[in-house]
Amino acid sequence: MSGGSIPSGFSQRSPSDCRLLLRDIFVIFLRLGATAFGGPAAHIALMQRTLVVERRWVTDAEFAELLGAASLLPGPTSTELAIFLGQKKGGGRGLFLAGAGFILPSALATLAFGWAYVRFGSLDALGAALRGLQPAVVGVVLAALVPLGRGVLREALPVAIAVAACAAGILGAPPLAVLLAGGALVALRGVRAQAAVALPALAWVFFKIGAVLYGSGYLLLALARSELVTGRGWLTERQLLDAVAAGQFTPGPVSSTATFIGYLLRGPSGAAVATCAIFLPSFLMVAALGPLLQRWRTSARVAAFLRGVTAASLGLIAAVVVQLGAAALTSPLAWAIGAVATGGAVSGRINPSWLLIGGAALGLALA
């Protein structure tokens, strides 16, 4: 990047070309947000396919570097990766448009589930759809790991870090500790070799969650339970579980669970406040960190650290595949869905979004 947060070549474009580029950024991430079912690992796989393979906006190595940086930050990793990618392509305006486009479909879909939940009292159909969706996620993410790993895992140490991170993730090690350990290992080697709920209270609760959220949706569940069920008594256990299920099933980031909860607590205004609050830390942190990445690339120590973080992040994604596979591949149908999704994603002939949607639809149809 040159000129702070302005990407190279962006400022030299004509005003009309800049507008077209910014429109493309918003539309592409809006489409990704509308079709990115299956959780963060699946979102990352879809972004890699769309922006590296199809659009060629970034290389595999650049994508992996931004993924490593996003993995270090608290908050939803896939959303922060989208914001990083938008910033790289379109500067500060691209940052906002990519993040807003990726979040909007999820927030609207979860809002609709919140309305249906309040009106009808349950979301029983989600379970069946998730049983078909999860095997497809396993296949899509597994296929995406191959090109990402090819660009990063070229030496013995990054390979060892990725394998160790995968094992640590499976065993339940804290993701941040795994990422920092991976970064430190490569950096050291590099040095030698180179209730009546008030809206302000609602906003504060979700801002705190967004600012410290590391890892998977399970951590979101734990944090939300501590704040909203046991701490403040705003929700019941069943309401929280239903909210997380709605966030998992809708496309885009699982953190849109906040939209559902906000709607339950204060209607449409609560949904808007909770959604903005949980994602605001991600925008702020990426905006602050993005301009520093180019400067850090000139430091051998920091560049080595980021390579280690990137290798560890790929290992953690592999751990997600193993854990999700153990939970999802429990029947011949699930194995068949997973195999078809893997083959379709590897072949490149079928957009992964359709594989995920097809898996969910099949699970729902056969319920």
Q: Would you write up a description of this structure?
A:
By secondary structure, the protein is mainly alpha-helical. It has one domain. Helix content is 81%, strand content 0%. It contains 14 helices and no strands. It has helices at 15-35, 40-54, 60-72, 77-120, 125-152, 156-170, 175-193, 199-212, 217-231, 237-249, 257-296, 300-328, 332-347, 352-365. Helix 3 (60-72) packs across helix 4, helix 5 (125-152) crosses helix 10 and helix 6 (156-170) packs across helix 12 (300-328). The longest helix has 44 residues, at 77-120. 53% of the residues are buried. Residues 1-5 have low confidence and may be disordered.
Features:
367 residues; mainly alpha; globular
**Into which percent range does the helicity of residues fall?**
over 70%
Computed Rg: 20 Å
Number of domains: 1
What number is the mean pLDDT?
Answer: 79
Largest sheet: none
Tell me what portion of residues adopts beta-strand conformation: under 5%
Instruction: Quickly give the structural class.
Output: mainly alpha
N to C succession of SSEs: HHHHHHHHHHHHHH
Global geometry: globular
List unreliable stretches of 5+ residues.
1-5
Individual helix count = 14
What is the number of strand segments?
A: 0
Q: State the end-to-end distance.
A: 50 Å
What is the fold's blueprint, element by element?
Blueprint: H1 15-35, H2 40-54, H3 60-72, H4 77-120, H5 125-152, H6 156-170, H7 175-193, H8 199-212, H9 217-231, H10 237-249, H11 257-296, H12 300-328, H13 332-347, H14 352-365
Helix pairs in contact: 1-4, 2-4, 2-5, 3-4, 3-5, 3-12, 4-11, 5-10, 5-12, 5-13, 5-14, 6-7, 6-12, 7-12, 8-11, 9-10, 10-11, 13-14
